[in-house]
Design brief:
Blueprint lengths: L1 H114 L2 H59 L4
Helix pairs in contact: 1-2
């Protein structure tokens, strides 16, 4: 009888334990049933955030490439202006020498004209006229070269200012990158 009551109590207790276990399992199962929905929402939010970050990274990459391209173009433009400026300055030096030579020749021919006889006077006058024409042309060429040099120097300053601006923007962009 004692065994029967004990057995009955054990069965009742087991039933209760099994019932409580089933309720707990049902609660966990129902929580897990809702959990995947919450996890799915979290995943959707995470995917959207990743997508937004990827779009920002792609836009930043494009901006960086554009800035680098502009910097390279400006660098090439500066190189071309420096090359042109060097050529103009070389021409200025050569033309200055030609002006000096033409002025010396004019002076020599003017002195020769004073001491020239009647027979050689016409020939010296023609040479003097040609030398004066060459001196005037050298002066005009010098003025044109000076204007060209001035224009190139101004262009160089503007290009260098643009290069510095683009470079500063690129440096600011680089500093704005997280993890740097």
């Amino acid at each position: 009888m004692l065994n029967a009551s004990f057995s009955k109590l054990l069965n009742t207790r087991t039933t209760w334990t099994l019932g409580l276990g089933a309720l707990a399992l049902a609660g966990v199962a129902s929580g897990q049933a809702h959990r995947p929905d919450a996890t799915l929402d979290e995943l959707v939010v995470e995917v959207q955030a990743l997508r937004a970050e990827m779009n920002q990274a792609a836009a930043a990459s494009i901006r960086a490439q554009l800035l680098v391209g502009r910097l390279q173009m400006e660098d090439q433009r500066i190189s071309g202006v420096v090359r042109d400026l060097g050529a103009v300055q070389a021409e200025l030096a050569a033309n200055a020498q030609a002006r000096t030579d033409a002025a010396a020749q004019v002076k020599t021919l003017e002195d020769a004209l004073i001491s020239a006889g009647a027979a050689t006077r016409d020939e010296v006058e023609q040479q003097l006229t040609a030398a004066k024409t060459a001196a005037v042309q050298a002066d005009r060429r010098q003025q044109a070269l000076k204007r060209r040099e001035s224009g190139l120097a101004k262009e160089l300053q503007e290009d260098q200012a643009r290069w510095r601006e683009i470079n500063a923007r690129l440096e600011n962009f680089e500093q704005a990158i997280p993890g740097q």
